[in-house]
Amino acid sequence: MEITIPKNFERKFKELLRDDWEKLIKCLEKRPLKSIRINTLKISKEKLIKRLKKKGWKLKKIPWIDIGFFVERPEDIARTLEFFLGYYYIQEASSMIPPLVLNPKPGELVLDLCAAPGSKTTQIAAMMENKGIIVANDDDIKRIRALCSNLQKCGVKNCIVTVMDGRKFWRKGLKFDRILVDVPCSGSGTIITTYSIFKTWSQSLVLRLSKLQKQLLQSASKCLKKDGILVYSTCSMDPEENEFVIDYAVKKLGLEIEEIKIKGLNHINGLTEWRGKKLDRSIEKCIRIHPYHNFTEGFFIARLRR
Asked: In angstroms, rounded to a whole number, what is the distance separating the alpha carbons of residues 128 and 124?
């Protein structure tokens, strides 16, 4: 399939990636494998692997998560009995990383501020073993329906769903041990799986979303307990949606960046300068995952502490 890359996208990311621009183009020539996360709320890893291998599936473990697998299969991955029973969740491999960085514990009070459709919420619930409380919020009622469906299918029992503009969530006065802020973004990191992003991406969209992202992060920071952990993530490669937002979090919201260590994950450090603007040096503790690093979608992740 021939891919047409808009000139404005090419100019910006040639500047950002420099010598790695050709690596990005090359990785777009082939679609990555689908990936699944085993839902340990309903079945053990060993039992599901055995069932899927009997069906002729080839499974390759995702290096950074024990219950995640790249799959080659003789059937539609979304049309199996195991999928409808909620034994596994179809989830892009990079999307599994933010909950790992959040590292929620059983018994904690956790907020997923932009939760729908529930990929990361269901992963957090499994990590918490259905113990404690998750508040899963979103402001889109159609996406909320998908969230509720996925929570039910995956057997999540410790989740309260709220429908609210995340920018105003702080007004409820609730305080959380851990908060995930996986914000709406331009999706420039998803070009390896979603070529249509080239049609919707623009610098003006990036700047509008950057403003929204700062507002969501500000709201979330007000909901965080002292010494609590907040993880900010996007599937964007744009600095304005990533490092610039975290620079704001450090300088205006008083949050401290913590180092991220994920075994088996290829990535680079966050940028500390872009187009002549110097950013807080501690932003290098954040991680950037470009599509060619692991042959997955791109992501940006920051771990922040109150």
From this structure: 6
Report the 10 Å Cβ neighbour count for 199: 9
pLDDT tens track of the chain, all 306 residues?
568 899 999 999 999 999 999 999 999 998 899 999 999 999 999 999 999 999 999 999 999 999 999 999 878 899 999 999 999 999 999 999 999 999 999 999 999 999 999 999 999 999 999 999 999 999 999 999 999 999 999 999 999 999 999 999 999 999 999 999 999 999 999 999 999 999 999 999 999 999 999 999 999 999 999 999 999 999 999 999 999 999 999 999 999 999 999 999 999 999 999 999 999 999 999 999 999 999 999 999 999 999
Read off the CATH number of the domain in which 224 is found. Answer: 3.40.50.150
- How many distinct structural domains can be found in the chain? 1
Domain membership flag for residue 78: no
Helices (H) and strands (E) in the chain, counts: 11, 15
Q: Does residue 16 lie in a domain region?
A: no
Contact 116/143 with Cβ under 8 angstroms?
yes
Range of the domain at 99: 94-305
Encode burial over 78-91: b for 16+ CB neighbours within 10 A, e otherwise: eebebbeebbbbeb
Q: Is residue 246 part of a domain?
A: yes
**Residue of 67, 37, 101, 68 whose CA lies nearest to 267:** 101
**Positions marked active-site:** 235
Question: How far from 273 is each of 222, 259, 277, CA to CA, in Å?
Answer: 27, 18, 5
Instruction: Judge whether 295 lies within some domain.
Output: yes
Q: Model pTM?
A: 0.97
